[in-house]
Amino acid sequence: QASTRSHCIFTIHLSSKEPGSATVRHAKLHLVDLAGSERVAKTGVGGQLLTEAKYINLSLHYLEQVIIALSEKHRAHIPYRNSMMTSVLRDSLGGNCMTTMIATLSLEKRNIDESISTCRFAQRVALIKNEAVLNEEIDPRLV
After folding, report:
1. What is the Cα–Cα distance from 137 to 46, expressed in whole angstroms?
2. Contact 61, 94 (CB under 8 A)
3. φ/ψ of residue 48, rounded to 5
4. Running along the chain, 143 residues long, what does each successive block of 10 average in pLDDT?
């Protein structure tokens, strides 16, 4: 709450049922706003801001590890439990889902390294292939 920067995850649970049908469809939508990584040497932050930057960079590193592992076809272990964020997003990254990433870039010349890094991250996210199927069940109250 006192942080100047952080990641933000909004989770929306949806259920729908057609009139006269016993089938209920469920969905979960994660809206994720990632704080950008920070090149500490470039920004020169210190103290509390330096600590926050380290935690943000570390959580982005763990997210990238999961994304890389998911894009490898025969990977036996996916490191979801390395961070709270990857644990929360587990079903949205490698589960029964469709994943979309929107990347925001800076066009300023001084931020070109960060913009290229963001594009590479988005490319790795695009390599994740999931087979999403409808989450349907018979309404237990009607059974």
Report:
1. 52
2. no
3. -60, -40
4. 76 91 91 83 78 88 94 88 92 86 90 90 89 86 72
Cβ(101)–Cβ(115) below 8 Å: no
**pTM of the entire predicted model:** 0.81
Residue 29's beta-bridge partner residues?
12
Q: What is the length of the chain? A: 143
Two structure tokens written together for 108: 């300023």
Measured in whole angstroms, how far is the alpha carbon of residue 88 from the centre of its chain? 9
In this structure, the strands spanning 8-17 and 136-138 are: unpaired
Which tokens is 31 given?
Answer: 């809206």
Query: What distance lies between CA 94 and its chain's CA centroid?
Result: 10
> What does DSSP assign to residue 37?
P
Rounded to whole angstroms, how far apart are CA atoms 22 and 78?
Answer: 36
